[in-house]
């Protein structure tokens, strides 16, 4: 489908940002957050957990969590695939947004309940990063809903 209408122009004389660009930016943030946690947990879990303030014994036990890192890396790769071709991919962006929302709520609750893992600075950082990524993901999802539903023409190629 093609849209023959003139693009809307903002009062400053510049065209509005393409919703697909907003979505792509949100997905890049999402991918970077998943990679920032996933790669170290996948490759050096004991070292990662030790670096964020987890005691040596617990960090060693968490070394078996490489599979969690692998999942996060896979989510990041999936997000980058959607960046390349977002048309009709609403299900992935919705699930990714839910992932970050649930992670933010669960991690913040665990921290509040005294179940936190790692140093207080790490707990605060993770809570803020997950919540911020959830907000950015939902914002990109809402802004690009027509692109994600496939209501606009598929990009050639």
Q: Can you give the helix content as a percent range?
A: 55-70%
Radius of gyration over all CA atoms, rounded = 19 Å
> Which oligomeric state applies?
single chain
Task: Report the count of strand segments.
Answer: 0
Q: Report the span from N to C terminus.
A: 15 Å
Report the uncertain regions.
1-5
Average pLDDT, rounded to a whole number, is 85
Helices and strands, in N-to-C order?
HHHHHHH
Described by strand count, sense and barrel closure, the largest sheet is: none
Report the principal-axis shape: elongated
Q: What proportion strand?
A: under 5%
Structural class: mainly alpha
Annotation field: number of helices:
7
Number of domains: 1
Give an overview of the whole structure.
The chain has one domain. The protein is 69% helix and 0% strand. It contains seven helices and no strands. It is elongated and about 55 Å long. The two termini are 15 Å apart.
């Amino acid at each position: 489908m093609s849209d023959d209408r003139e693009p809307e122009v903002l009062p400053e004389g510049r065209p509005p940002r393409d919703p697909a660009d907003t979505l792509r930016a949100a997905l890049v943030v999402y991918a970077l957050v998943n990679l920032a946690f996933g790669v170290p947990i996948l490759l050096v879990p004991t070292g990662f957990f030790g670096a964020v303030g987890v005691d040596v014994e617990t960090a060693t036990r968490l070394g078996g969590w490489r599979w969690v890192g692998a999942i996060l890396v896979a989510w990041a790769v999936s997000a980058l695939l959607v960046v390349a071709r977002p048309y009709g991919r609403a299900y992935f962006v919705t699930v990714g947004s839910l992932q970050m929302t649930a992670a933010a709520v669960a991690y913040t609750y665990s921290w509040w309940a005294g179940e936190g893992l790692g140093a207080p600075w790490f707990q605060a950082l993770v809570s803020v990063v997950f919540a911020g990524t959830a907000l950015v993901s939902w914002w990109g999802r809402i802004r690009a809903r027509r692109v994600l539903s496939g209501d606009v023409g598929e990009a050639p190629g």
